[in-house]
Specification:
The chain contains eight helices and seven strands. The protein is of the alpha/beta class. Helix 5 links the parallel strand 5 and strand 6. Helix 1 packs across helix 8, helix 3 packs parallel to helix 4 and helix 4 packs parallel to helix 5. It holds the Pfam family adh_short.
Length: 257
């Protein structure tokens, strides 16, 4: 099997949650591979900084201010990409959040935020990408950044609705694969499920800053780097058109679960 990104050179990719961590690492590798990359993020100024850093690469990065929890933002973002860069060929659904709460006494708004971003935002972006790919006869590729928590619930204090949101992504991956087959479309769909990755996710959720005990526990875990997951994404994108990697799970050596 020949692994090559050549067929994607000059094509348009959208990466959600592109301002930091896994999203930023994916943006960087796609730009190095020669793609036109639209980085969707609330903190679009960080994507702009990344674009300047990558200005000498084969491809180009474009910052697009999008809050994935808001459908209107997503629709505007896709329209901007289509009008300014062209039809999308690759969608990386990377945006995701975890909230520091629980099920027995948790705040409803925090639960909603997780599902709005991790599930509904992913579904809306996927719908828009498929519409564009279908209209332009593009055999594209959609990648959901999932989690090992979407396959086995971790014994992790304050996991709350996060595993449920990622189990949803696992189901949505297979449901979309079946739907694309039914429609006769050659669009590929892949779930990439990382284990522990050292990113801003836990800090943003307050799990490390609000709970010293949790911070100490987490400090003892082995972690992957964001670049390791970007490598995984580039691997699945580089497979030949007839090869679909349905699920790719990557864990750090020594991960206890």
């Amino acid at each position: 099997m020949v692994i090559s990104m050549d067929r994607w050179k000059g094509k348009v990719a959208i990466v959600t949650g592109a301002s930091a961590g896994i999203g930023a690492a994916i943006v960087e590798q796609l730009a190095e591979a020669g793609l036109q990359v639209a980085g969707f993020a609330r903190r679009s100024e960080r994507v702009e900084e990344l674009a300047k850093k990558l200005s000498g690469k084969k491809g180009k990065v474009h910052a697009v201010k999008v809050d994935i929890s808001k459908e209107e933002d997503i629709l505007k973002g896709f329209k901007w990409v289509t009008d300014n860069l062209g039809p999308v060929s690759i969608l990386i659904n990377n945006a995701g959040v975890h909230q520091n709460t629980n099920l027995t006494g948790g705040e409803t708004e925090k639960w909603k935020k997780v599902f709005d971003i991790n599930v509904l935002g992913l579904c809306i972006a996927t719908r828009e990408a498929v519409k564009i790919m279908k209209a332009n006869k593009i055999d594209g590729h959609i990648v959901h950044i999932n989690s090992v928590a979407g396959h086995k619930v971790p014994q992790f204090e304050n996991a709350n609705v996060y595993p449920a949101s990622k189990y949803a992504v696992t189901a949505l991956t297979e449901t979309l694969r079946q739907e694309l087959n039914h429609l006769g479309l050659k669009i590929k769909i892949t779930s990439v499920s990382p284990g522990g990755v050292r990113t801003e996710l836990l800090d943003a959720a307050g799990l490390t800053s609000d709970d010293p005990k949790m911070k100490e526990i987490i400090s003892k875990f082995p972690f992957l780097k964001a670049e390791d997951i970007a490598d995984s994404v580039l691997y699945v994108l580089a497979t030949p058109p007839h090869v679909q990697v349905h699920e790719l799970m990557t864990k750090p050596v020594g991960e206890p679960v």
